[in-house]
Amino acid sequence: MGGQARAIRAADPGARIVPLARRLHTRTRAAGGAGALALVVLDDVGKTYRGRGGAYEAVRGVSLDLAEGEFVCLLGTSGCGKTTVLNMVAGFEAPTAGRILLDGAPVRGPGAERGVVFQGHDSLYDWLTALDNIAFGLRLRGLPKRERRARAGHFLRLVGLDGQGAKHPAELSGGMKQRIQIARALAADPRILLMDEPFGALDAMTRATLQAELSRIWAETRKTVLFITHDIEEAVALSTRVAVMTRGPGGTLKALIPVDLPYPRDRTSDGFMAVFRQVHALIHAEIHPQ
Amino acid sequence: MRDRAITVLGYLAGFALLFAVWHVAATWLARSALFPPPWPVLDRAVVLVEDGILQEQVLASLRRIAQGFLLGSAVGIPIGLAIGSFRPVRALLEPWTEFFRFIPAVAMITVSVIWFGIGEESKVFLIAYTTVFVIIISTAAGVGAVARDKIRAAQCLGATRFQVFLLVALPATLPYILTGMRLAMANSFVTIVAAELVASNDGLGKMLWDARLFMQVEDIFVALVALGLLGFAADRLFRLLIRAFAGRFNPTM
User: Fold this and answer.
1) Where is the ABC transmembrane type-1 domain (chain B) (predicted)?
2) Which of B155, B164, B152 is nearest to A83 (CA)?
3) What is the pTM of this model?
């Protein structure tokens, strides 16, 4: 009982919530102008791979601030370097130019304050049950079994999988596996959730369901999210801001579009359509350059 | 449950067919004292069991296999894990594994007898030798096949290097280790017979050799059937283990 109460408190860190108005009106600023609001700062970040075949510039001069509680979608065509940006924020890869700051400190390698939801299901532990997968991060911290079970159970319910905790990943559908990944990342209570096209491999119906679920979960947990996608509708439906990238190689930020629409979002509303058209025009210009 | 019944019935029918073909081949085709049909062989096996001789030979061979196999596994699994985990270790040890892999255990019999005599040590050494390289290679391959995202997921949940190894790489590698052990067990049967043929006071290989010397054809066939049944049972055991530990998440095994 006590563990559960703590779990719910941890999932809803009210003290960290930034007032909604300020959050929605946060704009990116020039490099070096990181204000008190920014949780994550990307400052002129670039990544160039050097191999035997020469150099390949994946990402160039990306500057972006993420405020606490924001939901930012990084939108771009395939090969634009958006996953590379996420991998650098996660700490899986180091930038070859610029710097990435988390709470003012440079990012060095992966860490528990940045939870990642991967595109495929490879990242789940097949030999563990759904519940033990969710509890994995808590086990690493040495939490007692009863406490981590209670906490994992809370996040299992949060992602709508109540009663499925004893199943193994092989027994779950693709959508359920992504729910487990989200619960696993959230259970470790990260400062920011990094999501790499998490619904890209799902069918359209499941994807729409999970998008709605993610909006609800985000509203409940107020977690900061950086979400990678190439789906314009998904970006407009989920985010408080859409960061549009130019096409690769050497992709960079093209525009930052605030999405000032109420949740849950009505995809057929005029306001939604207007933002969709605006973002669509930006992406279309990348696919069919004049 | 129904699948299991079909499997068991199929196995029984398969063995029955095997003995039927043997019977037909020996009675109608070969018609030679050098190829006895199943019944005289079974009669002889009953006599050998009553005298306690067959059990003695089987136990002698199995004990050597068990000792050498456990020793080879105990040495091979950690080495395989180290090779799979650390590039310098791989560079250092790959010449060893790739060198000895091509010297079969049978070729090591002579040197083993010179070093250890014809007692237990030489046989245990040979079984361990034939086991260790298969397990090293299989284990190292398993470590290399761990999905990158599994390791990354653990890292961004705060895992230390040691935790990644213990809680991710090791369980993910377990099916590969068990598969390596299964292959090594088959190798061990080949090796134990060869070693006992050449230099031993007991065991199924020695039984084969003595039977040839004294032209006891039934004894030869008793030893052959015993080897086949023991190998079959050992292989089933490993398949069950692999399924218990890994089948849950690897339905192809």
Assistant:
1) 58-242
2) B152
3) 0.80
